[in-house]
Design goal:
Layout (H helix, E strand, L loop, with lengths): L9 H11 L12 H11 L3 E5 L5 E6 L11 H4 L5 H13 L7 H13 L9 H13 L3 E6 L2 E6 L8 H10 L3 H11 L19 H13 L1 E7 L3 E2 L3 E8 L6 E7 L4 E6 L3 E9 L3 H11 L13 E8 L6 H9 L4 E6 L2 E8 L2 H9 L5 E6 L2 H18 L7
Antiparallel strand pairs: 1-2, 3-4, 5-6, 5-10, 7-8, 8-9, 11-13, 11-14, 12-13
Length: 396
């Protein structure tokens, strides 16, 4: 039986995920045996590593179709914790479970608990009081002030949602580890939902996502520290944009140095330095929403490029039009005749929409782009496919 190892720094595992899940294969020397053993102990038979003759792990594979859920969610439950916080956590919750006490009273009772194990043990009062304040912020405890004296007790329990709702959002929503942990504790097993694929790497980013959402809710600035580049400019975090095709999350933010909007991939962010409250948050939010009216994926540049293509399909291929209507976003669809339609859109980056256009290639009869370089790139790709699979010169 493989022993589940505790994790000192989740960012070590996130670095593996970033290089292997999101970027493809990287240097084999990076994937060290200790990291392999930790990940392997949680994924069991779902992950496979292959060492070379030098013992370096060259690759690992995961068949996401066979995963009933993301096993990597469990890694967050196995984060190592300081012994002091571990003990004091249980002391505080036990003392305040059915009683209301001051921080000093709670400290005195906790000291009695500790000295049952070690008569000479002295609890660090500053750290202990700091834990109580943190638990109030996290809504684990509630505080009531009377005549200048603060009293604390356990927060009322929240009624859990239905198991099926919990299972669904534990899989598809950011910060699914919260739902996963509750589900694990309640041992929910059966589910009506089946998932074709699991983006297992996303589980590693839940910690940083919580920090992002916390900063957004408090409307404060942050300084992202990236794995490769270190500190970046101070930014205003505004939204998290999730890619449904690639399974990646991006932080949409406003750069306070360049005075422009930009995206940062969440898996590139190692940690944050917290800044100050940003008073113009609402104005930046509205500007971002206005800009997103022309953003196909993630490019927030202010230039606008026009794209037009026409599709022709047979009556039995009406599913083409159904899909075009479903996926067109802010584009305009015009019916030219029966089985013949035109699509037009103004986008910030033509290159972002071209992969989607290629999925309609069997029906495209005409295409025009204001970005001539993007149009040339598109036609060069079609010519290359034509040469590879054997077409005629009239294909392009």
């Amino acid at each position: 039986m493989i022993e589940h190892k505790m994790i000192d720094d989740i960012n070590v595992i996130r670095e593996v995920s970033r290089k292997y899940h999101s970027r493809g294969f990287s240097s084999s020397a990076f994937l060290q045996g200790s990291v392999v053993n930790t990940v392997d102990s949680y994924m069991n038979e779902q992950v496979h590593f292959a060492p070379d003759e030098n013992g370096e792990y060259v690759y690992k594979t995961i068949d996401s179709r066979d995963l009933p859920k993301s096993h990597l969610m469990q890694l967050w439950r196995m984060k190592t914790i300081d012994e002091f916080y571990f003990n004091m956590h249980f002391y505080i919750l036990d003392i305040l479970h059915n009683a209301e006490r001051t921080a000093q009273e709670t400290y005195d009772i906790a000291t009695g608990y500790a000295r049952e194990f070690d008569p000479d043990y002295v609890i660090d009062k500053d750290r202990f009081f700091g834990m109580i304040d943190t638990y109030v912020e996290d809504e684990i405890l509630v505080m009531r002030e009377e005549n200048g004296v603060k009293h604390y007790t356990m927060a009322p329990r929240t009624k859990l949602p239905s198991p099926e709702l919990l299972r669904y959002f534990a899989e598809i929503a950011p910060c699914g580890t919260a739902g996963f942990t509750i589900e694990y504790k309640r041992q929910f097993v059966k589910s009506f939902f089946q998932f074709k694929h699991h983006f297992t790497a996303l589980a590693f980013n839940d910690g940083i996502l919580l920090d992002i959402f916390d900063a957004i809710s408090k409307r404060i600035t942050v300084v992202p520290i990236l794995f490769d580049e270190g500190k970046t400019n101070e930014v205003v975090p505004i939204k998290v944009l999730s890619g449904t095709h690639g399974g990646r999350d991006h932080l949409a933010c406003y750069d306070l140095v360049t005075k422009k909007f930009k995206n940062i991939r969440v898996d590139e962010i190692r940690e944050f330095e917290l800044g100050e409250k940003y008073d113009e948050y609402d104005a930046r939010y509205e500007e971002l929403e206005k800009l997103r009216e022309h953003v196909w994926l993630i490019d927030f540049t202010e230039r606008i490029e026009h794209i037009m293509f026409e599709l022709q399909f047979e009556p039995a291929e009406d599913y083409v039009l159904l899909r075009l209507n479903r996926e067109n976003r802010f584009g305009k669809i015009t019916k030219l005749s029966e089985g013949y339609v035109r699509f037009e859109a103004d986008v910030t980056n033509s290159y972002e929409i071209l992969p989607w256009v290629r999925t309609f290639m069997g029906w495209v009869t005409k295409i025009e782009l204001s970005n001539k370089e993007a149009l040339k790139h598109f036609k060069d790709e079609i010519r290359a496919m034509n040469d590879m699979y054997g077409g005629n010169d009239e294909t392009v």
